Amino acid sequence: MKIKQNQIQDTNKINLQSHQEKFDFLSNSLIKTGTDVQSIVNKLKDFQVAIPSWALGAGGTRFGRFGFYGEPSNLEEKIDDIGVLHSLTQTAGAVSLHIPWDIPSDYAAIKEKADALSIKFDAVNSNTFQDQKDAAESYKYGSLSNTSKAVREQAIQHNLDVIKIGDKLGSKALTVWLADGSCFPGQNNFQTAFQNTQDSLIDIYKGLPDDWKMLVEYKPYEPNFYSTVIQDWGASLMLANGCGDKAYTLVDLGHHLPNSNIEQIVSILQLKGKLGGFHFNDSKYGDDDLTVGSIKPYALFLIFNELVYGMENNPQNPDLAWMIDASHNVKDPLEDLIQSLEAIQEAYAKALLIDQKALKAAQLENDVVKCQEILQGAYRTDVRPLLAEARLKAGGALSPIEAYRSLNVRSQLITERGKHTVATGL
Ligand SMILES: [Mn+2]
Prior knowledge:
isomerase; 6-stranded parallel β-sheet; 13 strands; alpha/beta; TIM Barrel; metal-binding; L-rhamnose isomerase activity; manganese; 3-stranded parallel β-sheet
């Protein structure tokens, strides 16, 4: 299934006049305050977020999984789905592959398909959190941290294989997330587990091409419930520093204990030039993997404020690998991803509206009230016409959800693929 440009233009016709009125009104009021509206629209147009290859099907919990009809059952179909998302939103121009769930069978054909849909291959993700069929060793008690050298070597080799696969597709980063840890006190020696992980990561790092990055993701709990080896950004940063200049910390929104100040974490990592990647989702309790912006949109805005500050003031920090890392248990995965992409763009646009000069002046005067007024003034602005304008200029849909529904995408996918398909890895 491929959405044609003229189909999008047809759906846009209905909303075009109303969009123009809303955009002109907002644009005029912003210009009066000295805002460069065109520059914000261009930045929104350029901002692309990778879709992980595991997010196109219905997710589930340890209690069960309820499938969604017409799911993509192979990598080709997953790329097609991202093509649908990208053509509507013009924001999903990259895919992040999970290995071994999505190893291409024909590299040239997959690249050609992705190219035709303007989709790039972003970071590749290794998997040492579950055992693979016919694997010699088990990850039940950890992978890179395991007490057994044979297990560690198998996990290192897997990561090196993932780099090779990514390299053939044009990826430039490896994301390592470990489930390693312990479920009960006394099960692990913390120091040995950490040192084993550092040594294993160094072995993987040695196989990293010169123009690649290694992204080290952290998580405080789950699937291990007493300790995780890479529990927080400090542990991740130590391991990245232990590897070298091409290793960075990756922040996943859901991988924090409740009320962690994530905006402060991303800010300091950027100051040190060590923030390499960012995973979007939202949560109420833990790693809930909910739609971005569905629970704490203001927190997301504050995080984007720091990200924007870093992008503008920290040349020592590289461009970030942006990815949505969510699970769609009760919604159509494509509709959920469209909502997430919209929430990301909305938080980004609001952060771009912050008058950084005025904020700095208020901070220097310790005018706390003014500081809050500036932040919340930006946050309370309805920026959706800016997002719609960016999409319109890029050839996308004014209202992606409306277009997705009026073009009957899901029912066409069901006709093409059948009802009871299951995405690889789910
Ligand atoms: Mn993640």
